[in-house]
Amino acid sequence: MAAQRTVPIVAAYVVAYLALDWVSYIHPLGPFAITPWNPPPGLSLALLLTQGLAFAPALFLAGFAAELAVRGLPAGALAAAGSSVVIAAGYTAAAGVLRRGARLDPQLASVRDVAWLVGVTAAATLAVSTGYVAVYFAAGHIPADAVVRSAIQLCVGDVLGILVTTPVLLALLRPQRAARAFRWSWEEAAQAAAVAAALWVVFGIDPAYAARSFYVLFLPLIWVSVRHGIRGAAWTLLAIQLGIVAAVQIQGLTSATLLELQAFMVALAITGLFLGAVVTERRRAGEALEAREAELQRSLRLAAAAETASALAHELNQPLSAIATYVRACAILAERPEENRARLVETMGTVTTEVARAGDVVRRLRDFFRSGSSRLEHVGVAHLLAGAAERARPRLERHRVALAVECEPGLPGVLVDRLQVETVLHNLLANAIDAIVASDPPERAIGLRAARDARGMVRITVRDTGPGLPEGMPQDAFPPFATTKPQGMGLGLAISRSIVESHGGRLAADPAGHGASFSFTLPAEETAPLQP
């Protein structure tokens, strides 16, 4: 299977290499592949980056075939073989560094990837051009006075060939990316027109001043790169390069002019790729942040469901236990109905009340999960504190923790979702109990107090005698997943803060000399105080 897959790839690569070598064989220095633009190295690097270094022998085969078919072995088979070895070894080493050392992402979606591509390309092309020229110089086919210029032109041509060709080929070798690349819109049509207009300004007004007007080509490139990222930059650079080559051929510009323009094109390519990578990287970072925020919201909702379910269990435990007790009492009283008729009727009424209370809790929870909305009701603050203390009493007694409840006289009521606020109180009391149990202080006490603050809001405070808040913990941020409990998720305070803020209040940690103190505010009703 591997051989069946390899042969077509190698054959297609060699054919494409020969076609690119033949098309780009313009303004050469001597009968060699020393031209101002050499896309074959870009094709070779794309092959090795996507298919693996095992295809390195194909580079030698394609290089030797090009020397034979395109240039007719001008220096003989031995020199052609030597230059092909230099090309294959140099770009295989470059691909190895990018794949294994830099772990280059073939999508070139980050500034880091583009920096590695540019840096490794510069080093590899310098080594390959030096080796290539050295082979033909040693064979006596390149004079000494042409060595430097030959190496410079080959280096510029290979750098440009890689920076312009490789990113486009990497996009084309991914079908889903390639399909997206060819979806045109009115904006993309306008951008293509801007590229054509910029090329006309550079070459159409006065070709003799093309190099001086080259900066105009930066304008459409910047526009496309900012809008479409690295893919847009890659395709725009290819369009500009093809336009430059076509203009040079049509207007008959000299090799020196073409080399100068290609040197400017290298700067344009580096700028475009880096700008496109910055845009793509920031866009992906934004998408990743949105995904993380969405995931966090889902986690918070799950945690809120768990926290609410815990509160539901505590809320239902009392009425269900009471129902069971009263039903057993009814069974005992029913053994002598004539003697206990009044007590039996009274007890059954109590059972009905407890059943209605449990049903109300279930209905409110169901409504909350159906609509996500709150069910506001007028509640006395003292009633909230008493209910929270009663639900926490079994744990308090089990761990020998004293609870002192204090409510300022004449405190106005609040308009809140009772179940949600009870969840906040349950979480704060549970945290206080856990802190005391974990540290085992000499004094095991919790204070639950409600009073009016300076702004007229109702402030409910839970203070414990535990070890206090860890150093560096935010006083009011309570980031999700930050916890001091070995088995904690770090979501209780974050959820409690969201609930309090949805009621128009604020949850914060108060400075305390000893232990921890948390308080939250609720808007007070400006009516007469509600009686619990």
Key features of this structure:
532 residues, alpha+beta, Heat Shock Protein 90, two-stranded antiparallel ribbon, elongated, disordered C terminus
Structure description:
- By secondary structure, the chain is an alpha+beta fold.
- The chain folds into 3 domains: 1-174, Arp2/3 complex 21 kDa subunit ARPC3, CATH 1.10.1760; 304-371; 377-522, Histidine kinase-like ATPase, C-terminal domain (Heat Shock Protein 90).
- The chain is built from 14 helices and 7 strands.
- β4 and β5 (458-464) form a beta hairpin.
- α1 (2-23) packs parallel to α3 (56-69).
- The chain is elongated and about 125 Å long.
- Residues 176-182, 479-483, 485-490 and 527-532 have low confidence and may be disordered.
